[in-house]
Amino acid sequence: MTEIQIGTQIALLRKKRKITQADLANSLSVSNQAVSKWELGICYPDLSLLPKLAEYFDVSTDFLLGISKDLVPEDIMLRLDGDLKLSELLDDAKILDKRGIDCFHKASTICNTIFAEGEQERPPEYYLAHEQYILMYTRIGQGARCVKEYQKRLELEPENWWSYYLLSLALYKNKQEKDSWKWIQRAFQKNYEKPELLLLAGDVCKELKLYEEALVYWKKAYKLDSNKCTALYSQAYLYEKIKDYKNAMRMWSRVIEWRHEHAQDEQHELDWPFVKMAQLKQALDHEATKLEMQTPE
């Protein structure tokens, strides 16, 4: 049976059109909270709204439900024939990648287009496309292929910190955490302390159960680049994993602050941090109750 993906589809189409949840809610005469719940998968839109949603986004109802064979949104297909910036191409590759294996080859083609167009000047998008390429190919079981490709790249460009990062990422995604850690350490020995490398170092350390080190690297990454909100999420989840609930709550609070400060505070972006904080408060209350029961009168 096909899983209904309407919440994911609505979020994808809404962000692509650069409209807010409030804009969509107003057009459909529903509440902002209703749209947020759809996108989070808490509930589905009423059946009577499906034709309106399909008309609003100019897609079929099958596409909305995630069961259409043509998984590539028409607006992306049209954009691919235009004169796009590398950043726009990269965004489209990421969107197509989320559509699953049916869009894999198109997403891969876009990455290769970015490689060709960015080869001379090497803007950040060029390397981020390589990052996307690794994520895509390791996801379909081609991790070993990526490792070989980026080993060769490092041999050709041993003084480029991106070469260390991309090889380390390929190894990490191919479940070779120890090898990934070795290359990250070599990058650090060359004083390549970049936010991307530090974030990856934290992820690798977490998998190796080096929790204190992981937290140190994520904190360093965020200190170097406060746009790396991923570092805050990673710390929050790890604190919860090691049952340091107070610090986990502190980090989720910082995530909420960050989203407000960076104008990324739509309801669906804030719902999860608030859910996590409520869960952590329950855990702290439970611990306090257990401690009281264990304390002799």
Distinctive features:
297 residues; mainly alpha; 434 Repressor (Amino-terminal Domain)
Give a structural overview.
Helix content is 73%, strand content 0%. With 297 residues, the protein is mainly alpha-helical. The protein has a domain at 1-68: 434 Repressor (Amino-terminal Domain), CATH 1.10.260.40. α9 (124-139) runs parallel beside α11. The longest helix has 28 residues, at 267-294.
Shape: flat
| CATH class descriptor name of the domain at 1-68 | Mainly Alpha
Q: Give helix and strand order, one letter per element, not per position.
A: HHHHHHHHHHHHHHHHH
Class from secondary-structure proportions: mainly alpha
State the helical fraction. Answer: over 70%
Biggest sheet layout:
none
| Count of DSSP H/I helices | 17
- CATH topology heading of the domain at 1-68: 434 Repressor (Amino-terminal Domain)
Distance between the termini: 58 Å
Can I get a quick summary?
The chain is mainly α.
List the helices and strands and how they pair.
Elements: H1 6-16, H2 21-28, H3 32-40, H4 50-57, H5 61-65, H6 74-80, H7 86-98, H8 104-118, H9 124-139, H10 143-156, H11 161-173, H12 177-189, H13 195-207, H14 211-224, H15 230-241, H16 245-261, H17 267-294
Helix pairs in contact: 1-3, 2-3, 7-8, 7-9, 8-9, 9-10, 9-11, 10-11, 11-12, 11-13, 12-13, 13-14, 13-15, 14-15, 15-16, 16-17
